[in-house]
Amino acid sequence: MLTRPLGRTGLKVSEIGFGAASFWGHPAFPEAEAQALVHRALELGVTLFDTGPAYSRGRAEPRLGRALSGRDIRGLVIATKVGTRFEGGRVRRDMSLSAIEASLEESLRRLGLDVLPLVHLHGPAAEELTPDFIGGLQRLRGKGLFQSLGVNSFDPAVIEAALALPQIDTVMVDINVLRPERVVLAGRAAAAGKGVLAGMPLAMGHTAPSAWRNLGIRDAWYLARALKTHRADMVAGRRFRFLHGRPDITGAQAALAWTLGVPGVSSAIIGTTRLAHLEDGAAASGLALPPDLAAGIATAQALS
Ligand SMILES: NC(=O)c1ccc[n+]([C@@H]2O[C@H](COP(=O)([O-])OP(=O)(O)OC[C@H]3O[C@@H](n4cnc5c(N)ncnc54)[C@H](OP(=O)(O)O)[C@@H]3O)[C@@H](O)[C@H]2O)c1
Q1: Model confidence over 223-237: pLDDT tens digits?
Q2: Which of 23, 90, 270, 290 makes the best surface tag, with the fewest CB within 10 Å?
Q3: Residue-range domain boundaries for the chain
Q4: Cβ atoms of 177 and 301 closer than 8 Å
């Protein structure tokens, strides 16, 4: 597994990161299988683990803490979020500094850490990134609660606002073959000295031809999520079916190679509940995207 520097944070991250979220953290996904994935990720050289207190109905972050408990976590970049939590059956948003401080302390406890290596504001509004707010976050950093600070948003205006702030170290954006417009944004972020992390690098699996063929509980869950929030991606993904079924590179590896080829990207954070998929994705580190696939992707993107 190759590593890359994460902007100017001084951190290095594996090219493939592990997303401790979604169905991985869901109570219906067995704890033993979830933990086995984290342990295999560690064996494969994954050093970046991304989670959040609101993920998987609040179950993902404590599950990641349990999976990492007793392991050698030196050198790992364990990233979490602030600004959202799961409470009363739904995700609640609270960007107040008091809520963020409480959230940081809870995350430290759940993850079994003394300091959080990396924390992202989870979907802030651009107008919330005021000097007072950023100053307050700096005070929390000064208390030793976290080291690096980022912004996770899929809204380009929010990312643009973050680029102007020297206190923001990283941005986490959805970067995948369905989002070619992110190439410019990632480049601008990197030029501003920010570490760039790619979330949803597999476009949630929407390019895969067989995604819903054998509907088990996890695939039904993925399908329900897609129908609820990502119908357009399900349709757009069909244009990228050609990525799959080749002898030299799997479809997921091709998608990851494209994302890792976006200038500025430090790591592609995948979500998976299958060991074979984790191993397949991890093997994408260092892979070059075959030129004919690169050309095919560019053509399919131009049609979007
Ligand atoms: N989604 C968001 O809104 C969001 C927001 C912020 C940050 N992030 C970060 O990004 C991470 C990844 O996002 P994501 O899970 O939503 O999307 P993703 O990684 O783009 O796609 C996950 C989907 O791809 C499938 N998959 C994984 N590896 C595969 C392989 N090698 N071959 C074929 N299919 C494969 C997974 O199914 P299997 O389980 O069957 O492998 C799952 O259905 C999150 O865990 C989180 O850390 C996401």
Answers
A1: 888 888 888 888 888
A2: 90
A3: 3-302
A4: yes
